[in-house]
Write a structure and sequence with these properties.
The complex is a heterodimer of chains A (111) and B (111).
Chain A: E1 2-5, E2 9-13, E3 18-26, E4 32-37, E5 44-49, E6 53-57, E7 60-65, E8 70-75, E9 84-91, E10 99-101, E11 105-110
Parallel strand pairs in A: 2-11
Antiparallel strand pairs in A: 1-3, 3-8, 4-5, 4-9, 6-7, 7-8, 9-10, 9-11
Chain B: E1 4-7, E2 10-13, E3 19-25, E4 31-38, E5 42-51, E6 54-57, E7 64-66, E8 76-78, E9 87-94, E10 100-102, E11 106-110
The chains are: A mainly beta (111), B mainly beta (111).
Chain lengths: 111, 111
């Protein structure tokens, strides 16, 4: 099975940098996703890491360490619109479609 | 392109009633899934399909049925609604490392 841990809530200041951590324990690993979900809306895809290291996409970066079962999402130059929940999700090996989601981290960006 | 279309957006059912949540995609993706999202629980997989005619159970399949007669459509049937099925339901398609594309969700209340 899979177990995914993320902080429940975080607060950060507009213009700052915030790091959202995700740790996981899985029986098999085939990639890790990050999604953004605004209140009342559907999740939207942010990033996918399958190899160790940092993937950068504009203001957002995602890091993976498979040996440590650890990932983080880094948001730079925070904007008010970044206030949302951020979901970590792990794809295991037991089935192509069996992606397990964490409970999400609710980020509040304050002026 | 509409992406993934879910209907209805909102629904109230009485205990014991049955209904079908509709999901249609125009992305020609083989893989489709149904998730439910509850506060503090994250997204949980109900059923998924890897192609027309092929479906399988996810983490929380009890009380739900699915079928996949075409690539485009993946309806979710609630057989006899219970208050425990009050939730937000998301349909999603999936293409390799590009992650999931979610529908806008159906907010279901069972009274």
């Amino acid at each position: 099975g899979q177990n995914i841990d993320q902080p429940t809530e975080m607060t950060a200041t507009e213009g700052a940098i915030v790091q959202i951590n995700c740790t996981y324990q899985t029986s098999g690993f085939n990639g890790l996703f990050w999604y953004q979900q605004h209140a009342g809306e559907a999740p939207t895809f942010l990033s996918y890491n399958v190899l160790d290291g940092l993937e950068e996409k504009g203001r957002f970066s995602s890091f993976l360490s498979r040996s440590k079962g650890y990932s983080y999402l880094l948001l730079k130059e925070l904007q008010m619109k970044d206030s949302a929940s951020y979901l970590c999700a792990v794809k295991g090996r037991e089935g192509y479609q069996k992606v397990t989601f964490g409970t999400g981290t609710k980020l509040q960006v304050i002026p | 392109n509409a992406g993934v279309t879910q209907t209805p957006k909102f629904q109230v059912l009485k205990t014991g009633q049955s209904m079908t949540l509709q999901c249609a995609q125009d992305m020609n993706h083989e893989y489709m899934s149904w998730y439910r999202q509850d506060p503090g629980m994250g997204l949980r997989l109900i059923h998924y399909s890897v192609g027309a005619g092929i479906t399988d159970q996810g983490e929380v399949p009890n009380g739900y049925n699915v079928s996949r007669s075409t690539t485009e459509d993946f309806p979710l049937r609630l057989l006899s609604a219970a208050p425990s099925q009050t939730s937000v339901y998301f349909c999603a398609t999936h293409l390799g490392s590009y992650g999931y594309t979610f529908g806008s969700g159906t907010r279901l209340t069972v009274v």
